Recover the amino acids of this structure.
């Protein structure tokens, strides 16, 4: 019997996308039509799909399919980079912890997920919904580059503001325009994404206020499936929590973890 992995993966990926889009609010006109419960269902759906993929692999191995798993390769954090980011956190961000979380810390070498609400300082809503990014890996997965809810590298202020939060915590971050969009951006840039689906979400290079709830910080593991000796598919199937690092009582809020 041949390996039917290609068809099954297409079905799983289509279902994964439909779950994720349920939790996304693209602009203010749709805010009241999408609830927190919908995003909760989307997250539960992702977990179910990951379990389904694992079970499918175990079954398909019996019919000529091989597989391997590996974690993403951690990238080193030079001390000069840490110092620069801590300086930027101190000088360009105002961070207020509204609720201190008790879960794993958003840190270097992690996949980080959060629900964010982003507004201009006059209160105008830009985006409300989930986002994610990978911090500190040298072999970045494709979804970190082109995904409808990914947080791009150009949004350094949001990325730095989330660093040091614990899962379950809520934080208000006021970001100076210096860290909104990349340094060379003059007018606007993508706030999240872009991806293959949905409208593009842009933010002007202005001061913004972000309220964020951290939902996950973990080390991702990828699964690669082969048909005979040929590469067939790779994707992230599980993400492991870690107890370290932890915030010490003496740490300043601008410390980079």
């Amino acid at each position: 019997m041949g390996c039917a992995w290609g068809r099954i993966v297409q079905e799983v990926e289509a279902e994964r996308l439909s779950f994720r889009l349920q939790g996304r609010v693209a602009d203010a006109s749709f805010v009241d039509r999408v609830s927190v419960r919908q995003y909760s269902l989307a997250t539960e759906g992702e977990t179910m799909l990951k379990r389904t993929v694992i079970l499918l692999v175990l079954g398909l191995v019996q019919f000529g399919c091989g597989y391997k798993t590996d974690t993403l390769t951690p990238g080193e954090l030079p001390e000069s980079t840490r110092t620069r980011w801590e300086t930027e956190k101190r000088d360009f961000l105002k961070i207020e912890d509204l609720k201190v979380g008790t879960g794993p810390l958003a840190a270097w070498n992690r996949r980080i997920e959060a629900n964010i609400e982003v507004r201009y300082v006059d209160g105008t809503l830009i985006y409300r919904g989930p986002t994610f990014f990978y911090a500190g890996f040298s072999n970045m997965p494709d979804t970190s580059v082109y995904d409808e809810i990914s947080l791009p590298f150009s949004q350094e202020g949001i990325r730095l503001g989330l660093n040091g939060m614990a899962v379950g915590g809520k934080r208000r971050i006021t970001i100076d325009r210096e860290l909104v969009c990349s340094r060379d951006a003059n007018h606007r840039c993508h706030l999240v994404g872009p991806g293959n689906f949905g409208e593009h979400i842009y933010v002007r290079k202005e001061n913004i206020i972000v309220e964020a709830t951290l939902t996950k910080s973990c080390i991702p593991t990828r699964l690669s499936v082969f048909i005979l000796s040929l590469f067939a598919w790779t994707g992230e199937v599980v993400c492991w929590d870690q107890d370290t690092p932890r915030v010490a009582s003496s740490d300043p809020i601008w410390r980079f973890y």
